[in-house]
Specification:
Blueprint: H1 5-17, E1 28-32, E2 37-40, E3 45-47, E4 51-53, H2 62-66, E5 73-85, H3 86-90, H4 96-100, E6 105-108, E7 112-119, E8 124-132, E9 141-145, H5 146-152, H6 161-168, E10 172-180, E11 194-196, H7 211-226, H8 235-264, H9 270-290, H10 313-320, H11 324-339, H12 341-346
Parallel strand pairs: 4-11
Antiparallel strand pairs: 1-2, 2-3, 5-8, 5-10, 6-7, 7-8, 9-10
Helix pairs in contact: 7-8, 7-11, 8-11
């Protein structure tokens, strides 16, 4: 499913609006994780029982868990993002097929790649262009003119006619530096009143398209566990339970995303040729399966280890067969009910 981020935000807002107090323009500049309390840029101090730091790769709350400043590391790549009305593509015979078919389309390297696909019921066409960052000293996020974007996006694949036409339709684009963090030792502050979620604790590079998915899974597990809360004494143990359920999966997905950075951006040569052959083989097998034909005999079972990680059936089963609620329920049945449940009887909220 390909979904526009603004539409996802709207759906989540609509679900939360009736049962929460949502405040905007409230930048957090400091906090005391032992209380816990948050100090806003306005000077207001907000007190709570628990703080969930879901403030992204440039997280403010992360430093309090780590114990000091912890800036993200540049990956050396940058991404341009743009959205076009599909009517522009339908007007060009060379681009029409891109908009007609609801598929993710990719062009690979060397040293960069492009991913593009329809969104909003084929009314818009989303384009993400990643490459080695040619201006590493620029701000993290900037809006670039079409001319500067085309000048910087100098990959050999950009010389292809269809891509040149596609890029010529873009009036301007947002440029993001792609930042990363190594896995943390823990997502939970030592006082048990601050926990991190999503990119704040396990930032995802866009090469696996899993950033939003991992954050939503985190929230689903945390929400399931805290639906059982009946005592302040249960807060810290439930936070550690959340981390134990989510840590390995999120870390493995981070590693998978980083691997695609290497795979997608290979320079021309033997490794690139082997990658392309594996990807062609997997694509041909998918087409044969759709036609009701047997797979190619040279194919590995389930395309295990294929350069196209989405073609690896075992990996895809792990990535897309995960049920966050089931994992939380399983943990509660096997551990939580016995170890954390009794705390609720001893100290009611």
């Amino acid at each position: 499913m390909l979904l526009q981020r603004a539409d996802l935000h709207r759906m989540m807002y609509d679900l939360a609006d009736s049962c929460t107090n949502i405040r905007t323009n409230c930048r957090v500049v400091a906090m005391d994780p032992s209380v816990p309390s948050l100090t806003l840029q306005s000077g207001e101090i907000i007190y709570a029982d628990l703080v969930i730091g879901a403030d992204g790769v440039k997280s403010t709350t992360r430093q309090y868990v780590v114990g000091g400043p912890d800036e993200p590391t540049p990956t050396g790549d940058a991404a341009y993002r743009a959205v076009l009305p599909t009517e522009l593509l339908f007007a060009d015979p060379d681009l029409k097929a891109l908009a007609e078919t609801p598929l993710m389309i990719g062009w690979l390297g060397p040293y960069g790649h492009i991913m593009a696909y329809n969104i909003r019921a084929k009314s818009e066409f989303n384009i993400v262009m990643c490459q080695t960052d040619r201006n590493p000293d620029a701000p993290w996020k900037t809006e670039e003119s079409a001319e500067k974007m085309r000048d910087e996006y100098h990959m050999p694949i950009a010389k292809k006619t269809r891509i040149q036409k596609l890029l010529s339709l873009i009036p301007s684009a947002m440029k993001w530096k792609l930042l990363d963090h190594a896995p943390m030792e823990t997502w939970v502050h030592k006082d048990g009143k601050l926990v991190l979620l999503g990119d704040a604790c396990h930032p995802m590079l866009p090469y696996r398209a899993q950033g939003s998915a991992m954050a939503i899974e985190d929230a689903a597990v945390l929400g399931n566990l805290f639906s059982r809360l009946s005592s302040h004494a249960q807060i810290a143990p439930l936070l550690h339970a959340y981390e134990s359920i989510r840590y390995a999966r999120a870390t493995a997905t981070q590693e998978s995303s980083r691997l695609n950075q290497t795979i997608f951006h290979l320079p021309d040569g033997l490794d690139q040729e082997q990658r392309d052959e594996q990807m062609r083989e997997a694509m041909e097998d998918d087409l044969r399966e759709a036609r009701g034909e047997p797979p190619l005999q040279v194919s590995k079972a389930g395309h295990k280890g294929n350069a196209n990680q989405w073609a690896d059936k075992a990996k895809s089963t792990i990535q897309y067969g995960y049920d966050a609620d089931n994992e939380a329920e399983k943990w509660w049945r096997e551990q939580g009910e016995k170890t954390i449940g009794p705390f609720g009887m001893l100290s009611k909220l």
